Every structure is written in C-alpha cells, then in structure tokens.
Amino acid sequence: MTRAFYTMSRPRQSAFRAAVASVRDSHPGTTSAERAFLALDVDRSTVERTHTLELHARVVERLALTPEADREAIEAALFGRGVPAEETTPAGSGVPAVGSFW
Predict the structure, then answer these.
(1) pLDDT value at residue 4
(2) Dihedral of CA 46/68/74/81: which sign?
(3) Which has the closest alpha carbon to 83: 17, 2, 36?
(4) How confident is the model at residue 84 (pLDDT cuts 50, 70, 90)?
(5) How far apart are CA 84 and CA 11, in angstroms?
C-alpha cells in the first residue's frame, strides 16, 4: 500500500496530499480535487475518514480502470499538472540528483 505512494516523486506526493487536504478543509463541491475523487467514485466522506496512503491505493486502483480520455484530467487534479512521475536519481545511489556533497 505505501510502496506505490513513496515511489512517486516528492512533488506528486505533495500534490496528492494537498488535494486530500483541500477536500477535507473546504466546503462540499467547491474544489477540482473533490470532483476528481468523485469521478473515481470516492466520495467526500471516504476522503475525510480514510488515511492518505490507503486513499492513494484506492485512487491508483480506480485510475487503472478509468478510460484514458478521462484519466489525464483526474491525474492533473490529484497529482499536479506537469509534475514528473518519479524522482530522477543516479543509478544505484538512492539519492535524488541535486548536486554534490563535496
């Protein structure tokens, strides 16, 4: 359950957490994230009472069953638009490529 979440890039993780928070902290029916969750048949009460990592597992499972034409807009609302899917790391280092430590 958590492995899929943590293999995403940090910006995508942050975008998903922000989408969950925006639904939890807003008035019903006012956010694009809530509409995206509803398109995946995940209602507001489920978002409010489900742990973020479990919610991510449900979303990924349902996104796989969503037609390609609808998937792009849902992913943009929940994971950010133009955010890379995975971190860029040098082969075998396990550390994101941000610069040298020396």
Answers:
(1) 87
(2) positive
(3) 17
(4) low
(5) 8
Q: Indicate the angle between helix axes 52-64 and 68-79, nearest 10 degrees.
A: 160
Helix pair angle (32-39, 10-25), 10° resolution: 100
Are 80 and 17 within 8 A, CB to CB?
no
3-state helix, strand, coil in the chain (%, to 5): 60, 0, 40
Six-digit token pair at 97? 């490529």
- Listed range (29-33, 37-41, 83-87) with the worst mean pLDDT: 83-87
Rg (CA), the chain: 15
- Would you list the DSSP string of the chain? -HHHHHTS-HHHHHHHHHHHHHHHHS-TT--HHHHHHHHTT--HHHHHHS-HHHHHHHHHHHHHTS-HHHHHHHHHHHH-TT--SS----TTT-S-SS----
